[in-house]
Amino acid sequence: MIQNPIPWPNGARCACVISFDMDADSLIHIARPADAHDRLYPISMGRYGPNVAIPRILETYRRLDVQQSFFLPGWCIETYPDAVEAILKGGHEIGHHGYLHEDPIEGPDQRYWFERALTAYRKYCGGTPAGYRAPVYNINQEVVDLLVEHGFRYESSMMADDIPYQVETAKGSFWEMPVHWGTDDWPPFAHYAEIGYMMPVKAPSVGLGAFWEEFDATYEAGGFFMLIVHPFLTGRLARWRQVEMWLEKTLATKDVWFARLDQIADHLDGLVARGAYQPRVEKLPYYSGPQGI
Question: At 63, which CATH number?
């Protein structure tokens, strides 16, 4: 049961997003800056994303007439401009995802990294992105303030609800498009010792099957279903074929609205403006300092 369900366009029962974080080989460069340039295995694994998986993914979306949201670090935008051009040509959205996939909690001077990524976005994509997703979801108050300052309309790193909600701060507000680890492909598929992850790799049907269970519950409740996946992981042949089959079946048999996250923000803005929906609100910061000490 969802306490405050969102009325979706045309009476759709559920809104669906398969969002991609195209991190490519930024992960090894931020984790091992001294010698990452000579670590050919992780570089090649990351490059599989923009060079092989992205064309495969975009062809599926073209065939099924689906437009979705992609999040790219600024360095990846600069390094893989052909992938950026192809994503935009397909009618998809590109969001802000840091510059070199730096962790906002651990990295000093978030303004520098945030605005360096914005510069790359404006050069290759034009304008200002509508949305942001923090690397490893580690958003903090400094980044929240930067989002408001730069006029971002939504954020997608927090986990306080099953459906989009509004985040309010003293400086402004935005929509939160909530994530959770149960619909992220990192736990079932990431095996990456160089950056400290050694997950037991699941079979495609097992790893992705857990996501479809999440969808079934969301659909029954009339909610919001979003995958958070990575081209170099889920864009592999057998895994992407599983996603293709699920997309084909879902589009044919379910009453769903596949949309980009900026389109969902548009829809929510319209509902609120018409007085047709009152979102739940989370106010930030949660705390003014350390607790329990």
Answer: 3.20.20.370
